[in-house]
Each structure stands twice: as structure tokens, then as C-alpha cells.
Amino acid sequence: MRQKLFRIVWRQANVALVASLLALVYSAGWEYSVRDYLAGFGDAIIPSNATPEQRVDAILQWMRTGPPRSAEPTPTGLAVRDPETTLNYQQLLAVCGTATNAFLNLARTSDLQVRRLLLLSPDRNTKHVVAEVLLEGRWIVVDPTYRMVMRNARGEMVTRRELQNPQTFAEAIARIPGYPPAYNYDRFAHVRIARLPLDGFRLRAVLDRVFPAWDEKVDWSLLLERESFFSLATASFVTLFLLLLRLFLAWYADHRLKMPRFHLRTHLARAGAAFFTTPEIK
User: Which one of 82, 91, 115, 259 has the lowest number of neighbouring Cβ atoms within 10 Å?
Assistant: First the structure.
């Protein structure tokens, strides 16, 4: 009975492993094509010899005055997590979330270290989305929706922490006509746990206690907002898990059940030896 059950599990594990390997190859090709497209797009608008600050300005300048983008009669049907779509439809470049994603995708192609920053309301709903760029060791705030780097009255770039000062925040938004004062930095996050069903288990509180500043240690924006990268990461994790599961099942069959099984490596080695070895003719 145990051997019969094992054979069922063994076959299902092998089928799942083959499927995951195919998914891994597909997602790797998908991510490669996305990166290749973004690299070409970035090369067209960002000078190769630009400093990090000039790269940021070049992206924002393209977002302000670049060539006209397509207009979709029904923008709700657009793939808002597709980098190519966010760069080519004017409706998406006018929305804070997708405009920030477009900025982040282009910034990464020019080797800038960037991340999303969610500005939260008192009930912890997202009211605005901006970006942070690491320049000279400081996480400078950029608002892609308004195509601006946040600066104080002296024209100096400012960080999230500095924008928590009411005076600095007032100086920064005074430089941007029509900027809503409600988009302050009193509450923020890099990952909105409320979107997940696990929020009911107070997942953020648990993570904060076990791994402080966990949401700043990993580039969650790339994982959560680029579908091709999420697919690649998921396929990689599943493939690794299934490989480890197959190794465990193989060990269990050889050492516990003592049952014969198909040894792929042994058969491949024999097939290779038979194919490449010249037979002796007597």
C-alpha cells in the first residue's frame, strides 16, 4: 500500500517539476524581454554619461515633455503592471501608482537604486504614491506624478524624514503649483499589507517584531508591481521546492521503502556511453 501511494506521489511530483521548469523558462524569457525593452527605452532618453541626479532629471523631463503617448478610450482595460503599457499610455502616466512604476522601471535601467513609497491616510489607505532614489547616500523623494524632485526653499533635495517637518514640507510643495497639502508624510509604507488577506493576522506587527525595517531591506516594488519578475521569482521558488521534494522522495524510496525506481542520471550516463563509445569489433 505504501509503495503504491509512493508511486502516485512520485509521478505527480515529477509532472509538477516538469511544469515548473517550463514555467521558469517562460518567465525568464518574459523578464528578459521586459528588461531589454526598458534598456532600449532608457538609452533613448537618458544620456550614458549622466550623473545619477542628471538621470533622474532626464526621466522626469521625458515624462513632462516627451512625445505624445497613446490614449485608450477604456483605460480600465489596460495592463497597469506591464512596463511597456505604463510608458506608452498617457492616462497611466497621469495616475500616481502607474506613473511611479514607469519612473522606477526607467530608473533601474540606468542603475539607480529606487523604491516605491506609499503615503497613507489615518485609516492606512494609500492616498498617494511617490518614489525614493538613493543619491549620495540619502533616499531623496521624487514625485513622478508631478514630475518633480522634492526640494526645500534653498533648492536642496530632501528625504522622507525631512518632509515630515511641516516647514520643510510646506517649502517643498510651494515649489509645485496645485500640490495637495494632504499628501504629507505623517504615515507611509513601502508595502501595503492591507491588500493581503493575512492582514487579519496582524502580519505587519509580527514582521516588525521579528525583522525590523523588513519593508526597506528588499525592493518590494519590483516584486509586487512587475508581473514578469513576480512570475520569475514564483517559478524559481516552486522549482527549488519541487527539486528538494524530489530529492527527499528519492532518498525515501532508496533507504526506507527499498523499492526500485527509475534513475535518470544512471540511464543518461549509460545512453551517453553507448552513443559516444566506439564498439569493439572482434
Answer: 259
For the chain, the domains span 1-45+226-276, 50-225
Secondary structure of 39-70 as H, E, C letters: HHHHHHHCCCCCCHHHHHHHHHHHHHHCCCCE
Q: Which amino acid is at 117?
A: L
Cell numbers 506624478: residue? 145
Neighbouring-strand partners of residue 118: 129, 189
Contacts of 224 (CB under 8 A, 6+ apart): 191, 230
Residue 175, phi then psi, degrees to nearest 5: -80, -10
What does residue 71 show for φ and ψ, rounded to 5 degrees?
-115, 130
| Residue range 210-261, pLDDT digits in tens | 887 787 777 787 888 899 999 999 999 999 999 999 999 988 888 888 776 5
Find all residues with CB under 8 Å of 57, minimum gap 6, and list them.
Answer: 149
pLDDT digits (tens, 9 = 90+) for 81-103: 899 899 999 888 989 999 999 99
The one-character DSSP state at 89 is B
C-alpha cell at 53: 541626479
Phi, psi of 84 (to 5 degrees): -65, -40
CA-based end-to-end distance of the chain: 50
Question: How buried is residue 128: exposed, middle or buried, by Cβ count under 10 Å (0-12/13-18/19+)?
Answer: buried
50-225: which CATH topology? C8orf32 fold (3.10.620)
